[in-house]
Amino acid sequence: MSKNVSKIAFKLKKFQKYFEGDILTDISTRAIYSQDASLYKVLPIAIIYPKVYNDVKIAIKFAKNNNTSIIARTAGTSLSGQCVGESIILDYSRYLTKIIEINPNEKYAIVEAGVIRDELNIALQPHNLIFGPNTSTSNRAMIGGMVGNNSSGSYSIKYQTTRENVLEINGYLSDGSEALVSTKLIMNYNPNLVELMDKAILDCTKYNITQNKNRFFIKGDPEAILMIELDGEDEESLKLKSHNLIKSLDNQQYIYDYSILYGNDIKRAFDLRASGLGVLMNTKSEDRPVEFVEDTAVDIEDLPNYIKEFKHIMESKGTEGIYYAHAGAGEIHIRPKVNLKIEEGRQKFREIALATAKLVKKYKGSLSGEHGDGIVRSPYIEYMVGSRNYELFKRIKSTWDPFNIFNPGKIVGFNSNEENLKYKIGNSKTIPTNIGFEEDGGIIKALERCTGSGDCRKTESVGGVMCPSYQATKDERDSTRARAVLLRDYYQGNYDNSVKIEDAVEILELCLGCKACKSECPSSVDMASIKTEVLTEYYNTHKPKKHIDRMANYYDNIKIASKFSSLYNLAITTPLI
Ligand SMILES: Cc1cc2nc3c(=O)[nH]c(=O)nc-3n(C[C@H](O)[C@H](O)[C@H](O)COP(=O)(O)OP(=O)(O)OC[C@H]3O[C@@H](n4cnc5c(N)ncnc54)[C@H](O)[C@@H]3O)c2cc1C
Ligand code: SF4
Fold first, then answer.
1. Is the CB of residue 467 below 6 angstroms from any atom belonging to ligand 2?
2. Both 84 and 118 in a single domain?
């Protein structure tokens, strides 16, 4: 910890008495919050879990008075580095999770920032209402983060983005005073959704236990599939509509086969699509599909030419891309394969990012259709919007946040989009372990499977069993993701080796070793095997705690106890003992 950071953390800890929520400054919690689902990694100063709104106010004032900054966070599934920085992280997901009011007559709901999008919809279901914008992460993404990123997803054609579905926001300005932002609700009822999955992603789903079962509707071994959802007045009109669509696609020879799905099968198909990003990480190669030009969007008319030209960029850089998702909105997700652990890969990262920005500008598109600009897109924003508009961005930021308290270094005032990448050049040491982890090529790579997508933060009410410890405590620390982040820090010796084996053992304490992550996590992180490895290392040099020792030697202990069975029986049946 730098002197300044430790001074701020120390001072903040002393402020605990003014907070109803919790303040944590220990290395393992800070390490857990050093990442979101993006490419970036920065150790924050401290984590605050606000319990009441006054906590937020005090935190802002503290940041202002101590010349530091704040990053708000909910599920931390952002892909562009929005939740990463040397700031105080304000995690709303622990306490500020209430649905305050549902008004079925006026069709609105009042919620706190930490309400999960799918849980809101479960609560809205009895009123025949939904909150439309949906991300692939909707079973853990929270409303605060959706507003922050202006999220949307596969239903953007029908429900647009979060912005169009928000009436009012109660928030705070950088001096700690309250603000109310009001927008008009606009709902677009275009009943359509068009989602793409290419062969590279489809093939990855074959090796994921859960997703392999969701491939039930795929015929043959297609190069790509397109998922289209239609609405109809009744079953008859819907059938007619789908029949006509299939016929015209067939006439144009766009398809060679199709499946029509109803009811729960639709959900299973979309689970397959939503797993897209995660399953991509099931690769041994260091040339990983990387998220830095992922959600570029152009006019739907321009999409074929845009993709053609993008493919030329890939070829000229000697790599290839993975293509999937929102074709219907002109926003096919693209991940170029790049190895960020070598200089050559970094060079490709730079060149592809710049060439893509130029291409998007040529088509008058958007560099980020839904994931947000964060750190990764910041260097290209001035180029995209022009110097005059960029100056306006800067003025808006300095007017509303004159002390640069909120999420600094993103969009304006950024440093570099390479400095804090979580993959470091030359940092590929192999750690000798008891278990081989041959499938991945070592324990670090087994841990690097975790993309930070936060699938392990879904709650029991939205389905699935991963991760039971998170479902029980709702604490980021007890998620598979937190374990993967901290254990990587431990094995890589990050932060001057300040993450110790004791921290590694502690974070695994509530891990049941149930292997739910192995099958349910899209990246198939196998935390149970990793736990075995960590505990083996620990118990090679440490004595086990008494209760663990007793359990481990259960049969030997029972054998000894059986020699004194009458005494033992007396002991356990006598109420006084
Ligand atoms: C596998 C995968 C698929 C994804 N698919 C999609 C997709 O289809 N569509 C899409 O739009 N996005 C997608 N994302 C990105 C991300 O999941 C969404 O943008 C999501 O809505 C973010 O929600 P969150 O709760 O994780 O927010 P976080 O990541 O925690 O925060 C998002 C932003 O909001 C800010 N914020 C959070 N809470 C507050 C608050 N209380 N006050 C002020 N600011 C706040 C944060 O500082 C940050 O800038 C995907 C991500 C992954 C990993
Ligand atoms: S093995 Fe551990 S980390 Fe994985 S789902 Fe089970 S409890 Fe969670």
1. yes
2. no
